[in-house]
Give the backbone structure.
Amino acid sequence: MKAKEFLKTFQEYIEENGDPKGLAPLYEAGGADIVICPEGVRVRPPLPDGSGTPAREWLGVCKRIGIPAELGRYALERLLEDIAPLVEKAAAGADEKWDGSRWVGAWSRDALEAIERAWDIVERYADDPDNYPPICDAYTIIFDTYPWKLDSVQKIWGSECPDGVAAYMERGETERLAECIYEYAKDEWVVRGGVEAIEEELRRLWESEAENEMEDE
């Protein structure tokens, strides 16, 4: 696979699994694994913890390069540009052979060196704190970043809600309000859990407010 083809393949993966315009495009996808095999290169989501190593990777037929989920958009773009020629070189030297009982990897020295260099570059990017955008959870977005009360939230997010925040609140439309908050926040922060987490936090807030009103009565 040529470097340009690899970059296109990776972009398609982001479009299908992540958020191309997000501050951390791979965050929703949980990262990415670049898998290089004799038959070609593919990009897949990272395997779940405890799932074990796929047989062809364990036998050395395929090699993996992991990309962190939290990298910022521009850092990710630079990283991919840096490793694309190495992925091309690794793919060109990927092969397998029969050892008498099973197929095992048979990689050229140049290919193995390219994979090692690619991993070194990934680790360098991953170790630089400047390559990560701020990541906040829903509670932080709603309470810590902009301390607020229900009667003043219009002043904070009003411009983002076509019908007005107060109207959504009055109708109990937590999903619409969560979308407004997310739209407001997403240009500055990666919101852990996205819209769903914000809505859950809002529901918790609503219930808490209702309980307090009952106690006051």
Observations:
- Residues 194-216 form the longest helix (23 residues).
- The first strand starts at residue 32 and ends at 37.
- Confidence is low (pLDDT under 50) at residues 147-152.
- The CA atoms of residues 33 and 44 lie 5 Å apart.
